[in-house]
Amino acid sequence: MYAERMNDKSFEAVLFDCDGVLVDSERITNGVLREMLGELGWQLSVEECMRIFVGKAVKDERALIERHTGKPFSEDWLAEFRERRNRGLMERVQPIRNALQAVEQLHARHQGRVAVASGADLPKVELQLRKTGLMRFFEGRVFSGHDLPRSKPAPDVYLAAAAALGADPARCMVVEDTVTGVTAGVAAGATVFGYSPPEAGHDAPDALRRAGASVIFSDMADLPALSLRC
Question: How is 22-80 classified by DSSP, letter by letter?
C-alpha cells in the first residue's frame, strides 16, 4: 500500500466508481463480451479482453470492434450484449471485498454525501448496486457517463455527481481502479484514491499513480482510515 501526504483538508463528499470498486463485475462482463466478440470472429484471451476493455464503455469502442471483426457494430448487437451481460450479473455479481463496510462508514461520516459516478450504462449500475445490497447508500445519487455529453476519461460524470451533492469537486474524494477513471477524477479536480488489489481487472499501482492518483491502496477496509490522513 502506498500513500502520499497531501495538504490537510476535509472532504465534502465521496464519489465512487462502480465496476471494480464497489462490485466485482469485470470478469463477468468481459466474459460475455469475449464470447460475443468470438462469435463475430475476433478471438481474444481473457487477459487481452480485460486489458483492452476494462474501464471503457463498449459503445465507445465501436470503431475498434468493427476494425477487428470486419462487421458493423449494430444497436441490436449492443442490446444483446447488455441482455446477456445483465443475466450474468444477476446470477453472479458480488460486492468487492470489504466494500460494504467501507461505504457504510463513509456514508455515516459524510452524512449521506456519497455518490456513484460510473462510465457504465445506468441500468447496469443500478442492477449491480441492488443485487449487492449497496443501493441503500446511494439511492438517488447514481450517475452514468452514458447520460452526459462525454464519458470517462472526461470529467463530466464526476462533475455532475459533485454538483448534485452541492460539493466543490476540489473538495471531493474519488475512488477509482482504472487509469481511465483516475484520469476523469483528476480532470474534475478531485483527490483520487486508486484501488489496486492483486486480482486481475484492476490497473497496477504505478499506472494509477502516473495517471494522477494521490493515494494507492489494496484493501477497501483501509479506505475510511486513509481518507482521514488527507
Answer: TB--HHHHHHHHHHHHHHTT----HHHHHHHHTTS-GGGGHHHHHHHHSS---HHHHHH
Prediction pTM value: 0.86
Higher pLDDT, 222 or 7: 222
User: Which grid cell sits at 10?
Assistant: 476535509
Instruction: Look up cell 494521490; give the residue.
Output: 214
Residue spans of beta strands (DSSP E) within the chain: 2-3, 13-16, 114-118, 142-144, 172-176, 191-195, 215-217
pLDDT (average), residues 175-192: 97
Q: What is the pLDDT of residues 47-100, one digit of tens each?
A: 899 888 887 888 889 999 999 999 999 999 999 999 999 999 999 999 999 999
Residue found by looking up cell 470503431 in the block: 63
Nearest-angstrom CA–CA distance, 112 and 104: 9
Whether the CB-CB separation of 26 and 201 falls below 8 Å is answered with yes
What element of type H or E holds 87? helix 75-92
